[in-house]
Design goal:
By secondary structure, this protein is mainly α. It has one domain (2-193). It has helices at residues 2-6, 10-24, 28-35, 51-55, 60-81, 86-101, 114-124, 128-143, 146-163, 167-183, 185-193. α2 packs parallel to α6 (86-101).
């Protein structure tokens, strides 16, 4: 990564990181839930601001728009930064992901990052998107746990990217995967205890 960043001016990297963070920190779930007249998403279901919890409002359009917004806020900064190379794109992607996890507007209490992970992946290594989708859908179909599907998909993606020779993207997504697992620590405990909420439940 250092070699990929060496030729990029420091000021450009700072701007890429700032743009990525501010983009990632837009709380689409919270904004859209209020726009739909459904109150504060943080007081619904799990309290998370992502698409899975937005679905617990019973409004599929709201959940879909939340998912789309959370994906694009990861993709757009990466694509904008690509003009300065993969190093700058990686910095923008990491910053966008961190913006979603720790948004300044919500006192650094954000979502768990799965949709934004997918958005960063879409911009950085699109070949990983179908891998993510197949694993997520397969696990969700078999076990009906969104969290388990996300944990499995984000674990498999960096391994596949490494195996096909895309080492920079593999390293970046491995870092994002680690952060996803940290943010899902409570879900992991509930999965092991059998108390995790299944897809489609409003609880």
């Amino acid at each position: 990564m250092n070699d990929m960043l060496a030729s990029v001016p420091t000021g450009v990297l700072i701007l890429c990181a700032l743009f990525g963070y501010l983009s990632g920190s837009i709380p689409f779930g919270l904004v859209l839930t209020r726009a739909f007249g459904l109150g504060d998403l943080r007081s619904i279901g799990s309290g998370n601001i992502g698409a899975t919890n937005a679905l617990r409002t019973g409004n599929k359009l709201l959940a879909g728009l939340t998912f789309l917004g959370d994906v694009l806020k990861g993709t757009i900064p990466v694509l904008v930064a690509w003009r300065w190379g993969i190093g700058a794109a990686g910095i923008a992607g990491i910053a966008a992901f961190l913006g979603h996890l720790f948004p300044i507007w919500l006192r650094f209490r954000g979502g768990k990052g799965v949709a934004t992970y997918l958005g960063v992946l879409l911009g950085l290594a699109p070949i990983g998107v179908p891998v993510f989708a197949v694993v997520w859908l397969g696990m969700a179909f078999l076990f009906r746990y969104s969290s388990l599907a996300a944990l499995a998909a984000t674990l498999v993606v960096p391994i596949v990217l490494y195996l096909i020779g895309n080492t920079p993207a593999a390293a970046l997504t491995a870092l994002l995967t680690l952060l996803v697992y940290i943010k899902h620590h409570a879900n992991i405990r509930r999965l092991t205890s059998g108390t995790e909420t299944k897809i489609g439940s409003k609880g």
